[in-house]
Amino acid sequence: MTDPGNPSPRHATMFSPAPGAAPLWRMILAQSAMELRVLLRNGEQLLLTMVIPVLLLVGFSVTTLVDLGSGAPVDYLTPGVLALAVMSTAFTGQAISTGFERRYGVLKRLGASPLSRFGLLAAKTLAVLAIQALQATVICTVAFTLGWSPTAGVGGVGYALALVLLATAAFSSLALLMAGTLRAEATLAAANLVYVVLLGLGGVVFPVERFPEFLWPVLEALPITALASGLRAVLTEGAAPPPLPLLVLALWTVAGAALASRLFRWE
């Protein structure tokens, strides 16, 4: 028999402590699961990310308030509304929630954990992607009900997914940059202001060509415009995937991630 006070080498090996942080990927998955639960429990966030884009899609598709050309309004609107949904989740909602997490000391506690800034950004981005999958399902279902007829093939769908992933990374890094440098109240005001401005100027509902020509280069350099125009090119126009939107979103992603990782403050 084994002496209880002197366990066998086998038991000692099985139950010996293993101090140290968990692997990075495991910490990211755990944090992303928590972020997802928080997002799903927040009614205001769901209103921003789900209800408003659907109302815009339905409202402007069944009325003639805006002249969108000779085609069906829903064909023009759906890519822009999908782009708005990406921005509302990855940027606006995430900036506000992270800003108040920082104010209430949640981020300070995370900063004392082994989770790095990169890990926090990755976890929040994964949670956002999960919400966006739900958004896209709802928006596309409503759009098909309204008569949407996308023209993209397999290559166009792959291009659209690449755009969404890049845009999510860009908007997430910009959200963390804002939330990690401004006070929570300032983040709330600034994030909502940016949402409204980009809704009007980013080619979501109103074509960029309706604005003065000297503004076109500025508007086309916006991440929301790049996402909306790229999605519209392949989903509505059936065109070859344009490289410019990918380039614009890649530049925003690199710049936003670099600044967020350098300037983000946990408290």
User: Uncertain spans, ≥5 residues at pLDDT below 50?
Assistant: none
Number of domains in the coordinates?
1
Order of helices and strands: HHHHHHHHHHH
Helix fraction?
Answer: over 70%
Mean pLDDT: 85
Distance between the termini: 56 Å
Please tally the β strands and state the result.
0
Derived from helix and strand composition plus strand pairing, the structural class reads mainly alpha
**Relative strand content:** under 5%
Cα-atom Rg, whole angstroms? Answer: 22 Å
How many individual helices?
Answer: 11
Sketch the major β-sheet: none
Shape: globular
InterPro entries: ABC2_TM, ABC2_TM_bact-type, ABC_2_transport, Nod_factor_ABC_transporter
Domain ABC transmembrane type-2: 44-267
Keywords: Antibiotic resistance, Cell membrane, Membrane, Transmembrane, Transmembrane helix, Transport
Protein name: Transport permease protein
In brief:
This protein has 267 residues and is mainly α.
Walk me through the structure.
With 267 residues, the protein is an all-alpha fold. It is 72% helix and 0% strand. The protein is globular and about 70 Å long.
Main attributes of the structure:
single chain; 267 residues; mainly alpha; globular; antibiotic resistance
Task: Detail the topology: elements first, then pairings.
Elements (H helix, E strand, L loop, with lengths): L8 H6 L9 H18 L1 H19 L11 H31 L2 H6 L5 H29 L8 H26 L4 H18 L14 H5 L2 H13 L7 H21 L4
Helix pairs in contact: 2-6, 3-4, 3-6, 4-6, 4-7, 4-8, 4-10, 6-7, 7-10, 7-11, 10-11
